[in-house]
Amino acid sequence: MRNTWEVTKIMLKMQYSSGGKHSNTWIYALLAVILIPFFLIIMMQVFGAIIENVYHMLTEVNQESMLLGFVLLFITAILLFFSFITILSAFYFSDDITAYIPLPLHPYQLLIGKAANPLIYNYLISAVIFIPFLFIYGSISSAPILFYVYGFILFIFFPIIPFTIVAIILMFLMRYVNIAKNKDRSKIFMGAGSLIFVILVNVLVRLNLDDAALMSAFTAYIQEQEGLLKMITTIFPPAYFGALSLHFANSWQGLLAIVALLAIFIITALLFIWAGQRFYLKGVRGMSSGSKGNLSEKASHKLTKQRSILKTYIRKEIKIIIRTPAFLMQCVVQPLFFPVFITVILFLDLGEGLSSLGSVTPEKNLFLILFMLSIVMLSINATAFTAISREGPSRKLNLFLPIPFHHLIFAKLLVAYLIPLIPFILITFIGIYVNIPIHILIGWIGISLLYNCLAVIINFLIDVYSPKLHWTDEQELFKGRFTPLFISLGQTAFFGIITLILWNTNMENVYLIMLILLIAVAGLTDIAKTYLKKKITLETLQNLDN
After folding, report:
1. Residues with Cβ < 8 Å from 162, sequence gap 6 or more?
2. Cystine design at 65: which of 34, 247, 260, 292 (Cβ 3.0–4.6 Å)?
3. Which positions, given as ranges, span the membrane (predicted)?
């Protein structure tokens, strides 16, 4: 146990050691104390009314526990998706793994150490969703103190269960599926497969039920106590026991449910250790080789064909992101999860029932909701805040190549501007489907595109002033870098305050609200562009290491 704890501390220190090298670490702690509670309060205010309405609606049919089960299932789906990405990266595709193999450690000890950092991300995700919901639900239902005790136990143990399940499946696959010959391609397919897996489960469950069968099952379950809870949590029993423990927190049923959940946790943890001891190192050694590949004459000619410097550098930036699994997952696939998940729910679960949402919501409220959705989606831009750091040690080559400085900056900014528009376009199509009025949609798209420019510049400046150039694994660019997160929370807080003020005023003219937000975003964007042109020079890039 001592060796396990020591190797875990070493691995975490290696991942987050950069934070201790800066004298401004206290600023991160101060921002966390200020911004994170503010962000949670905003979430509780925004979603509190929705949760309360759903709770009272379900209370009328004595099925309020369904809300608990649905939230736990939603958290499970997100954790499954992120676990696929983080486990593959940390367990198999991290460059430092070969340095730990010769150490006198059992495979399961090495595995537990590697699991620590991905689990931190699971807890952060769970905290953002589960903790506000727990207090909102507890306040609405006048829950007893044991409700919060069981909620704390759930928060500690529940995120580990989806993680261990995904880890066991992946360790088995990586042991027996020969992917060494296509190592880089397998990274992309296995990572993107996590998104497809979560969506496919949802699709198959819905497609196997016709409307008559669904209504018949719904009627049967609603007549049974906690029937809807059983109905929606059938695919993942830990969510059922977790919801049951919270719902019956003040009785022996809640105690039995939490004991059942802990039993599932112990079983999955033991299976995780057993699978790690048996399969992990064999799977890691299978990743050590790769394919050389040969270029045809046609491909060689295509690569050496003369092109515009600007176009060539843009192509280079895009290829680096697409061909590097860590960059593809963080910059492209991960932002797609929320829009794709909402699309699947919309078309398969709600069908025509939500198609009139845009026409029944007041225009003012609809526009402000869409505006804040854009802020949350676009404020943290992984492509922009790794624009300089992505090149790592090879960054110095740009200082010697005959590339105009403004071409280099413009190419990075343009790529960082375009990539976040992929999920944004999907949300736009959803808006069209739910009948958002065309003038609201056009105004929202215009302001969002302008705000995207502001967000790109802000995140790019973050990477210039706080780069991470000396990395050995691409995942290091996204681990332990809290500045982009806090800047994103700051933007959300700033525009959130403006939105709350406009929401609570008597101003009903949506065009006037658009004009106010347009002036605010345009003014900040102009200030950011002026600062970028004035402060970011060739000398700035030359002195990044100093």
Report:
1. 76, 79, 80, 83, 122
2. 247
3. 26-55, 67-93, 120-140, 147-176, 188-207, 255-275, 326-348, 368-388, 409-434, 440-462, 482-503, 509-528
